[in-house]
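Exercise 7.
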Amino acid sequence: MRKLFIILGLIAAIIAVVLSSLPLFNMAFIPALAALAFGFAAFYSSKKENESKKVVQLIFLLTIVSLCLSIYKAVFSETKVGDTKELEVREQKAEDNAIEELEDLDLSDIKIDPEIRIQEAEDKAIEELEGLDLSK
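Solution. The predicted structure, written as tokens, is:
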């Protein structure tokens, strides 16, 4: 059981360290708390079996590093909203270009055969009639 807690604690601590160094640093708290729980479980099982606690100390060290880094980023990072005027101008230009392209289209070249439309309407009417229950 001790080995299981140590392995799970190490995995959770490493994931916490990696997440705390990424822009997703807020997600690092979940594996850090899991690593602390697994670390405490491994510590108590090591204490009962009178085994070495060096790996458990490594779990705690990695978890503390990830928590410190995540808390530092949470406190001192600023979310900056850029100037949205440039974005609005780009959107307006893209919309104007799309309108110009649609206006330039020549739809007179497209020929629709009226017999195809009639055939499609007939097929649809037949399907609807076949779906009716006339036994009533």
